[in-house]
Design brief:
178 residues; alpha+beta; Nucleoside Triphosphate Pyrophosphohydrolase; 2 domains; four-stranded mixed beta sheet
Length: 178
């Protein structure tokens, strides 16, 4: 049985998210479903340098605390590639001359409408981004071999689901998982 929406109402909205409550009929009958919709798709960047190291950023998330992630952020309505280029520069002080779109994914698709685009950035140039990193809440930028990033996942140091998925996209594209 397919889902059907009988009624829908906005319960909260700001510039980043829209939360609605739907009266639905689903496989188990009638109910209420809460849905969080991101106002703009997000982007995630796997920046790989000429030594095959991945750029990771460390920051403190209000919701989960310390987090190690790939550079990422909201598209703010921009083209996803433009947003990825902006986020990589703001968060890590990096520009790239080669970009590949690795794929699209959905975050928390059981409760959210949150599309995300994943990019691979190569041929990197590192600049000074101290001011924008502070503004973005970035505590540190670190470079680890691709296999080292996978080890950080296995060891439970990288717990951000989107970072894990973005690294999987890159591993598939690059033909390596260790």
């Amino acid at each position: 049985m397919a889902w059907s929406t009988r009624a829908s109402r906005t319960v909260y909205e700001n510039r980043w998210i829209h939360v609605r409550e739907d009266d639905v009929t689903g496989p188990h009958g009638d109910g209420i479903y809460g849905v969080v919709r991101m106002q703009h798709p997000a982007v995630f960047v796997i920046a790989l340098d000429d030594r095959e190291r991945v750029c990771l950023v460390e920051l403190d998330r209000y919701t989960t605390g310390r987090s190690i992630e790939v550079p990422a952020g909201g598209s703010d309505g921009e083209d996803p590639l433009v947003a990825a280029q902006r986020e990589l520069l703001e968060e890590a002080g990096i520009t790239a001359s080669t970009w590949h779109h690795l794929g699209r994914m959905n975050a928390l698709n059981g409760i959210a409408d949150a599309p995300e685009d994943v990019f691979l950035a190569r041929d990197l140039t590192i600049t000074d981004a101290t001011a924008s990193q502070h503004e973005e809440g970035i505590d540190a930028v670190r470079w680890v071999p691709f296999a080292g990033a996978l080890d950080l996942i296995a060891d439970g140091e990288i717990t951000d689901g989107e970072t894990i998925a973005a690294l999987a996209f890159a591993g598939i594209r690059l033909g390596r998982f260790r």
